[in-house]
Amino acid sequence: MENKNFIKQKTYVSEEENTLNWEEVQNAFKKSFGSEIYNSWLEKISLIKEYNDYLILGVPTRFFRDWIVSRYLDKILEQVKGFKLSLNRIEFNIIEENKKNQEHLKIDELNKVTEINDSILNYNRLNPNLNFNSFIKGKSNDVALSYSKKVCEHVSRYNPLYICGGVGLGKTHLLNAIGLELQPDNNVMFISAERFMYHFIKSIKKNDMVNFKDFFRKSSIFIIDDIQFISGKESLQEEFFHTFNSLMEKGSQIVISADRSPMKLDRVQERIKSRLSGGLVVDIESPDLDLKIKIIKKKIEEIQSQFKESINLSDDVINFIANESKTNIRELIGVLNRIIAFSRVHNKALSITECKNILKDVFNQIRVITVDKIQNTVSNYFNISLSEMLSQRRSRPLARPRQVAMYLAKKMTTRSLPEIGRRFANRDHTTVIHAVKTITRLSEQDDEMQKNINQIKNLLLEQ
Asked: How many domains is the chain built from?
């Protein structure tokens, strides 16, 4: 076989060595690391030079190099050694784009920023209806509303402002209201964590991280909704961390919402949870009866004003709807809309008996709560796998959710204690008794535990 210094893959080797087949190595990366990591980070690695004992690999940017070195280098070296045992070192070079691409980047740089901007505007416009005037105040949201207004009066005084609470309780409404209030005099960025990730991945694939960073870090007010979405997404967390720090350093106001407190965010880096906890954390609780009645009456006024028609619902019917709606504000509004629609069609005021009949599938339906459903809901709520929760491991992050699931199985099903124990990997009924006693005691002493129990019950009743 004729020896060559350069081969098809542009790889330099000594005359006595066989060259690596880089395509085979990349296929091994894909199998070992998985498609998500491979497509995001490893696919763009190219083989520049190969020596007897080390490789020089090319990556598109310093960001890529630093991320790969810090996260994947050991495993990459292990993989390539499987193809060539003598390799013991890897070096990375930043591959500069050719002159044509550099010139194109200079010409098109503003267009790329505009593309991000337009895309965000299409999905994340501030809703003018979700303002402070339309937000209905009650005991459950009084603190969150108060500090949301104070942030608008004293930017960066409470930084970050972290608003947490269950689904449908008004977190997004408050974030939107803050954005509207500050928008006239500030560069406001309002985006969901999901859309933030979308633009992050898109920028990586387009090799356009510079514009991504510049765009998101230029805002004076940065509002991000549902931050729990970054759970388990390491590369996204890394970028969010640096974006957060950059904004804090320049004095930008950061406002964040999530479905739980910062320290309860699972599979999120400790340094991120620490920074989120370093500002002001406020909680929105489930609405009480008075707030639900206020919300119903306010909604009726809005509908009457919008459609120029009279809606005749008695106080008894309004109280019935508020009493029976047990989950969140969204369900409450949905129930009200159904009652109003029925009243319009039949052109009459409805009695409580008629409302019960109309809403029987919502309020009076016997929801079948099974041990399986409880186990799945609890494991999802605490962001652990079902197999981990049912395992014999006794660490606190697994034992406490397991006890919560046993407690709910006893309270919300008709299963006997021995039956429940069998469903939890054949545990003894005394273990179930201990779990029930433990969670009962904790829920009486710990507000956080009581809130967790209530939120999980609501999730079960919504299914």
From this structure: 4
